Amino acid sequence: MSEATDTTPGWLSREELDAARDRMPILYVDAVPVRVDDTGTVTHVGLLLRVGEDGTISRALVSGRVLYHERIRDALLRHLEKDLGPMALPRIPTSPQPFTIAEYFPTPGITPYHDPRQHAVSLAYVVPVAGDCRPRQDALDLVWFTPEEAAGPDVQQEMTGGHGVLLRQALAHVGRLP
Amino acid sequence: MSEATDTTPGWLSREELDAARDRMPILYVDAVPVRVDDTGTVTHVGLLLRVGEDGTISRALVSGRVLYHERIRDALLRHLEKDLGPMALPRIPTSPQPFTIAEYFPTPGITPYHDPRQHAVSLAYVVPVAGDCRPRQDALDLVWFTPEEAAGPDVQQEMTGGHGVLLRQALAHVGRLP
Amino acid sequence: MSEATDTTPGWLSREELDAARDRMPILYVDAVPVRVDDTGTVTHVGLLLRVGEDGTISRALVSGRVLYHERIRDALLRHLEKDLGPMALPRIPTSPQPFTIAEYFPTPGITPYHDPRQHAVSLAYVVPVAGDCRPRQDALDLVWFTPEEAAGPDVQQEMTGGHGVLLRQALAHVGRLP
Amino acid sequence: MSEATDTTPGWLSREELDAARDRMPILYVDAVPVRVDDTGTVTHVGLLLRVGEDGTISRALVSGRVLYHERIRDALLRHLEKDLGPMALPRIPTSPQPFTIAEYFPTPGITPYHDPRQHAVSLAYVVPVAGDCRPRQDALDLVWFTPEEAAGPDVQQEMTGGHGVLLRQALAHVGRLP
């Protein structure tokens, strides 16, 4: 999950966040960007391509922290614009009900999700994006996959921390699990 | 709920539908048309204004039957275009999961919903519409209300058959119940 | 999906049902019976073992029609008691919101679900059962599988008509998709 | 929302929690305890009776923080047992999908929910309780109300911080909004 928000002026410093992370669950949002047709059917899923510090390639969902005094909706919009660019035109869901809750534990195996840095609890949403996506920041690229490709072994093994499971849960929710 | 679809060539005749209605639940969709802001917050709810055979005024949601061999998504799109016009640009939800199921019984009082003609079971969805709405067919007009107005006594008493409750359930689902 | 309800006195005759099936979608419920621990975590999924007319073995969810003037809740309870016996103690969900809608088309490939006899639209629920299950009627046996087993290739290939996909959607909904 | 968990040994001290509260959203769970009949229909809602420091009476849902390295399910169970006693036999939902997210802001009016102490984000669930409820700790009593009573003006005006709205959202979700 992205750390880009940690440098936002006025919020937690890196040291303060590190301290809090040892003590309490940190609230996140996960967004699964999708392309839809006129009937709302999901035709493609967008995954960010990232290069880790050790050079490994991974694919990831849009993800990030919710800030103090920030609404979930605003956090979703902020992270989507940060990762997909200002012309992505994301359609934030009308309902705050997430399709699932992803509990990232620092200890692997307690849930399907894992984050070695912290205990993060993420509200997960499927978000149609209608516009032009231009990845920014630490993302190299955004690639659109069909539901079949996204749930397939090639893409799944490039996703870490449980994002592969979360992606398949999203596909199940929209009726597109192969 | 609209009967406009009953005359679609190739489907049930009026007599056949009447016969089936006495024997089995009829599948419907209900759509709550909404206007949203950039963060997906519902700002307005669209209600159809109808004049009954006895001259009474009522306000209604978009509603209608699902046809044989028709997907739920296609039924939603068809009824929204029928009632709101071809330029309404409805954003059909990505997930087939309805926010609730409305069970219209011919006998009042069994559920909050009532339809004297039949036992109808309706899958209910909130649908953002981004375009220009021009009511057609038997609807006189489409009026946009704030959530507060829509849940208020004036509008609620103009809704029949349980549509008032269903509208408030939709507002609850999107976090806008006053 | 079971036809056992078709012989209930007072409802559609076989001939009438056959006629209606050619003309309109038939309303069904699907139930995924599960065992849960004290925290609500699904530990096992119950699948019915059926022997087809041609001797083939298949595994199936609890499934059946909703009758005229019958509530969804009552249909769920009736089919669960019919298939699992009177001591199963199913805990029908508090909310009528299904985890998904399964659209069984007579034509394969339109959706992941298929029923050669009819166009059936099914409201799908996960239902914890706390009691003693004794399959009745045309079911040979009820077998409990872990989520990993249920989503695995051996069980999945014994499920037909899209029940394998629906089962994995249920597992995704409860956070147990492997 | 209850502060009882803050004294749990090994977790945040009061001072540390106070510091964190000024900087980041705190994760909570809200539970609406209900009684159900055999078909899962909600017949009653349980509300805690509390006496504030200034002697005012208020009614509240079961509510509290999620601790570091604690699953949502375990937090729900812990708070329900804390507030309703060890014999309440709560049936924690199978799905982690909450019926809504309640965003309690320290500034009133941004959302329907308000908590002057902090920015709390709460995952809200309806939880059937089958056993004997004996309120403990700071709750004076637990009173069961019908859905009509719970949504009525007398009870609603005794609920603070948006719990009245959240309760009506829960009733809408289970199909029992009057």
TrEMBL record, chains A, B, C, D:
Q: Spell out the InterPro entries in the cross-references.
A: DUF4916, NUDIX_hydrolase-like_dom_sf
Q: Name the Pfam families on file.
A: DUF4916
Xref: Gene3D superfamilies: Nucleoside Triphosphate Pyrophosphohydrolase
Report which superkingdom the organism of origin falls in: Bacteria
Mind telling me what this protein is named? ADP-ribose pyrophosphatase YjhB, NUDIX family
Which species does the entry assign this protein to?
Marinactinospora thermotolerans DSM 45154
